[in-house]
Amino acid sequence: MNSLKPMLLTSLKSYDRTQFVKDVTAGIIVAIIALPLSIALALASGVGPEAGIFTAIVAGFVISALGGSSVQIAGPTAAFATIVAGIVAKDGLDGLVISTILAGIFLILMGLCHFGSLIKFIPYTITTGFTSGIAVTIVIGQLKDFFGVTYPDGVKPIETTEKFKAFIENISTANKDALIVGIVSLAILIISPMIFKKLPGSLIAVIIGILMVKFLPLKVSTIGNLYTISNSLPSFHIPSVNLEVVQNAIPNAFTIAVLAAIESLLSCVVADGMINGKHRSDMELVAQGAGNIASALFGGIPATGAIARTAANIKNGGRTPVAGMVHSITLVIVLVVLMPFAGMIPMPTIAAILFIVAYNMCQWRTFVHLIRTAPKSDIIVLFTTFILTILFDLVVAIEIGMVLACLLFIKRMSEETHIDSWVYVDDDTPDVNEHLQKLPLQIRVYEITGPLFFGAADAIEHIVIKDFTTCLVLRMRSVPAIDSTAMNALQNLVKVCEGKGITLVFSHVNEQPMRVMKKAGFVELVGEENFCPNISAALAHAEGLIK
After folding, report:
1. Tens of pLDDT along 170-182?
2. Angle, to 10 degrees, between the axis of helix 394-416 and the axis of helix 376-391?
3. Contact yes or no for 62/4 (Cβ under 8 A)
4. Interior CA angle at 463 toward 461 and 467, to 5°?
């Protein structure tokens, strides 16, 4: 099927030398951008700096080669940092590998089952809430390194609240040298995009940070002080697996898979708008799954499509998956040649880079706009997801956010469903409109508006049958759908009507409700002759019944 065909195969049909040069150029530039970000995100995830580059190399290559987007650039992203750090702290690196592999399997299954279009059913308020929450957790997690705070031996906070508490309790140990490097790095990251359009600010900040620590009398921790740096290529590793570890990994794997799917498909949509193209969502999910499995087996962390790197690829002329593959190959060369120098990067500079990453992903303008304009139910979901992401983790935030969003949606929809009786007047009533339909007193008409489902089925109980009523007409032209709970309520209404000798007539039953009624045997129960195409036919049929 075309939806499961890699975009690389399509792109190469009309490939030429000119586009190859553009793809190579774009791939090299994106690799330069990805280098400091990959290291920073790996450190924020609680793993070594090489893991970030391994992820960009392995997952980036696989996802570009197999993906459903012609311009997607994949690698480690900030969305995973908090959850990965939690997994590593609790379950170790093997726990992370198993979670990532399972997430990859989930993503492949989602793609094969054509779930690409179903991601749109995750509410915007939930994605905004947890994205903003992740940004806050990243900032809190980097306060220690930015201010050069020292924790007592044995203090290794895992949760965001624990990290913030430990930072506040030990703020007195802040290192002014670290703060100087951090502020200078942050200033460079903010100002450099205004001056240098092509050169990434993160690379400039890294170079200046290294020079400051190397040539100025500043005592600041560097990556080399905390981690062992290696320029070895990624090697294949199979983790030790048992049933208990797999069971514990499933919730984390599900969260990684959902996040990877959301972020990668969102990146694809943004990219489509920039190049006037169309991605293949199902193939993209399969590629994301394969990329994450490969990343985990070769020492990497979870990966997904990165919007900023994808946009940089497009702006620099990349138009086929070759650019993403060149980006990965370039990073291999960088890993072998320049990785030993990564140990000289100051930790406050890494923290400053992550502050900017958090700011770019926090969507504070969108957050404020939703607060000002969204319905109260959406604001409740937004704040709930945001707060739970910070106080607990993404698993809890997404689960409770989805349940809450569904419940509030059901409530909102149930409020839109109502059953109204036609107003009855007699000839002595003043100001009677001459255009009102004149009906016999024995006929009672109710008009149902909105979906009849379990959240609104009790509306049927509001139908009032008078002692003189011999025919009840239900007008259903505004009922788009019905479920089994509402069907049960209608069947109870039929029993009540039969007990009182009242005939039930239906007017304008739409396709879905009629299909459900036929399957449930309800049409036979009421009588097919009592289903009319419109209200005029229904009223004429009702008048014929009472004569």
Report:
1. 999 999 999 999 9
2. 170
3. no
4. 120
